[in-house]
């Protein structure tokens, strides 16, 4: 099985690459080759599996055709301009997030006109397709109500994925990831960055800023769960999905207070004292428009699984990123 | 006020043109000029109001810019490839229904970059954005679940309209029309054609085929109501819409049996006998996937109004199309 990962250089893409190489198989079939694509060339891990890395912009003419022409059996499309940038640069957001995805779908369809071809396509959508006012737990049949251009672009891609799948041009599945915490690496400027920061930094002996109230509720899954969703989606029987090809992934609905309580259980009062409360009204207002809880019965019935406590999320971070050891002890 | 109608040559476009000219004003302002655009030049009615008619394809480069450059105050965008054709010709459907609308929105945005410009844009969406399985009455916050490429394209345009409005590039409102009956003119090949045919033909002394069971329920409004929706949307204060710019219009949920009972009240047993029952499994299957009823509380609160009985719909047809007289008597 030849696998193509678009957006391979990002955090999720790198972890997915490692997981695929570690498994050696997916959906019961051997992985024969891996193609890694991103706007910057992804690092190529040492492996017996043939891996090629390509620096390419999916939104430029020819890129999607070149990729589809290699007829991968399975495609992960993870590439996107993030929310803040898509809001700041309207043209770039639509070009990468909408046109890039449409060009990919269209290249797959054109390839299928030359000779039968209908690859599995796993697309990472986002809970940003939903915006306030929202019900207490958002069901899969809630309307797309994005409050950002990023969320609009993801919602449009969900519709395209469903239509191209219905027509038999691709075998698509779109998965809406919860906010992924604890993200490894350095703090970033994303409005959601503090959700990871207030665990990651204190466990590393560093201070972290908390810009919102402890009562704020949000929707979480670990990077480990995110990779689990992608692998499960790749092997899933899509027939039970019917025409509804996009799913909210399971996650944990938890408050900042619950998150901090988990931090204390692993890092003690020493870690706790490293959280500096610095209210930021702008961030608080943005976060207030975000989804807080989902009804993911459909995804759970299909076998998707996530953490059920913040302790599990912190433990996954310590095991996967810190070698099982907390660095501030 | 300069008004642009795109899709002016169709049934709704022609009736809208007549209604605007008859009123002379809209939203309390005089109509100073009317531009009628369609792929074929629309008929230009005799009027004191300056009217220009243009045959142009919105999906071709330059058309949208040319139209936006005239800076109309109010734009009605009614143009679309219908459901059956969009399903039969995948490329054409996406080109006209998606790309055409996106080019229009983009031309308006570009025009606004030269000098402030934010016209009201009334867009006709469709109940085809919803497909089975559906709840007994579809609320506005039901997910887009189209089962056709046409419905997918309309759903995507709704999302674009909302995002361009949120960003302040246009003042958009999307209205999902019920199935419009009784359509004047000749029978057509649309799967929904019989809903009009079984009223129109018998009242005209002609036979009409009924391909589905009398128990079939569907969602209706008269052409008169459709024009009323458009005019009301043109003058509506959009602030109460918030970020949710797309609305299901009010309509009448009725069965074929109720429709036939109304026919009998106006046309007698003579009209009744002109309905020939000829079950068609293909049409029955298509119709079974269509919405049957909506919760339109939101549109009603905003002042949109439709018929509340099939008698009202038949009466509107007799008054507006038959000069108040039934032709088979």
Description:
2 copies of one chain form a homodimer. The first copy, chain A, has 329 residues and is of the alpha/beta class. Chain A has 2 domains: 2-178 and 222-248, NAD(P)-binding Rossmann-like Domain (Rossmann fold), CATH 3.40.50; 193-219 and 251-294 and 307-321, Alpha-Beta Complex (UDP-galactose 4-epimerase, domain 1), CATH 3.90.25.10. In chain A, 41% of the residues lie in helices and 18% in strands. Chain A has 11 helices and 14 strands. The first copy, chain A, has helices spanning 11-23, 63-69, 83-88, 90-114, 149-166, 193-203, 223-235, 256-272, 281-288, 297-301, 310-321, and strands at residues 2-6, 25-26, 29-30, 33-38, 51-55, 74-77, 120-126, 171-177, 179-180, 208-210, 217-221, 246-248, 252-255, 275-277. A 7-stranded parallel beta sheet of chain A has the order 5-4-1-6-7-8-12, with helices on both faces. A 3-stranded mixed beta sheet of chain A has the order 9-11-13. In chain A, α5 links the parallel β7 and β8. In chain A, α4 (90-114) packs parallel to α5 and α8 crosses α11. Chain A is globular and about 65 Å long. Chain A starts with a strand and ends in an 8-residue tail after the last helix. The mean pLDDT of chain A is 95. Chain A binds chain B through residues 90, 131, 140-147, 149, 152, 155-156, 159-160, 162-163, 166-167, 243-244, and chain B through 90, 131, 140-147, 149, 152, 155-156, 159-160, 162-163, 166-167, 243-244. Chains A, B: Residues 3-209 form the NAD-dependent epimerase/dehydratase domain. Chains A, B: It comes from Devosia ureilytica. Chains A, B: Keywords: Carbohydrate metabolism, NADP. Chains A, B: This is SDR family oxidoreductase. Chains A, B: One of its GO terms (molecular function) is oxidoreductase activity.
């Amino acid at each position: 099985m030849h696998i193509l990962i678009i957006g391979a250089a990002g955090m999720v893409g790198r972890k997915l690459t490692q997981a695929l190489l570690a498994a050696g198989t997916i959906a019961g079939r051997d992985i024969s080759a891996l193609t890694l694509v991103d706007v910057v060339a992804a690092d190529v891990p040492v492996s017996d599996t043939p891996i090629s890395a390509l620096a390419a912009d999916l939104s430029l003419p020819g890129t999607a055709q070149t990729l589809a022409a290699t007829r991968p059996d399975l495609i992960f499309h993870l590439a996107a301009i993030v929310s803040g940038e898509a809001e700041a640069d309207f043209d770039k957001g639509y070009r990468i997030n909408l046109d890039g995805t449409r060009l990919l779908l269209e290249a797959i369809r054109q390839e299928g006109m030359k000779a039968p071809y209908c690859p599995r396509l796993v697309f990472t959508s986002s809970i940003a397709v939903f915006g306030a006012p929202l019900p207490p737990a958002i069901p899969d049949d809630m309307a797309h109500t994005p409050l950002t251009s990023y969320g609009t672009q993801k919602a449009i891609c969900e519709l395209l994925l469903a239509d191209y799948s219905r027509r038999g041009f691709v075998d698509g599945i779109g998965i809406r990831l919860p906010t992924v915490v604890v993200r490894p690496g350095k703090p970033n400027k994303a409005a959601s960055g503090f959700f990871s920061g207030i665990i990651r930094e204190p466990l590393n002996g560093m201070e972290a800023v908390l810009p919102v109230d402890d009562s704020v509720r949000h929707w979480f899954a670990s990077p480990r769960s995110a990779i689990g969703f992608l692998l499960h989606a790749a092997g899933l029987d899509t027939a039970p999905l019917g025409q509804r090809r996009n799913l909210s992934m399971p996650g944990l609905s938890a408050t900042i207070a619950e998150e901090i309580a988990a931090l204390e259980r692993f890092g003690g009062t020493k870690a706790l004292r490293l959280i500096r409360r610095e209210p930021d009204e702008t961030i608080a207002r943005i976060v207030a428009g975000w989804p807080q809880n989902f009804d993911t019965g459909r995804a759970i019935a299909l076998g998707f699984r996530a953490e059920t406590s913040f302790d599990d999320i912190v433990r996954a971070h310590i095991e996967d990123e810190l070698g099982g050891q907390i660095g501030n002890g």
